[in-house]
């Protein structure tokens, strides 16, 4: 019997206009709950109330990490980083919303990634398309 893997805890961080050294800290791990869902409204200071649910059915969560860099470097080498919990059914819409808001803010290099294990949104993700050839080359030179 296979076991369903779902995030119960994710790193939580909202760092907008931060310098790279400020993003080395991954935020704090928090238990996923409707009160701390990530939303595109996090960019506004008007105070967005979290969604509520009266459902007795457990909510399946995923961890999110969104990183965006500005096109205009005159403000310095800053970056926006958002980490947090997202309900599984809303993953696509939240990522698309965050990337759209970032692009509207002049951050065309915006990437949103989702993972499904506890606190999995802290690590830097290496793209498999790049990591595989590098690993093969290293093994070739080590084992020859």
UniProtKB/TrEMBL annotation:
Keywords: Membrane, Transmembrane, Transmembrane helix
Keyword Transmembrane attributed: yes
Membrane-spanning parts: 122-143
UniProt keyword annotation of Membrane present: yes
Annotated protein name in UniProt: Protein quiver
Lineage: Eukaryota, Metazoa, Ecdysozoa, Arthropoda, Hexapoda
């Amino acid at each position: 019997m296979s076991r369903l893997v779902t995030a119960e805890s994710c790193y939580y961080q909202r760092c907008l206009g931060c310098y790279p050294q400020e993003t080395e800290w991954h935020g704090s791990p928090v238990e996923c709950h409707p009160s701390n869902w990530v939303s595109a409204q996090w960019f506004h200071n008007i105070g967005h109330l979290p969604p509520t649910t009266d459902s007795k059915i457990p909510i399946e969560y995923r961890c999110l990490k969104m990183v965006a860099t500005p096109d205009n470097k005159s403000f310095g080498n800053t970056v926006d980083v958002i980490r947090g919990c997202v309900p599984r059914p809303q993953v696509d819409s939240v990522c698309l919303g965050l990337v759209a808001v970032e692009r509207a803010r002049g951050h065309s290099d915006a990437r949103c990634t989702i993972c499904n294990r506890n606190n999995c949104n802290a690590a830097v993700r290496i793209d498999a398309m790049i990591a595989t050839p590098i690993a093969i080359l290293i093994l070739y030179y080590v084992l020859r």
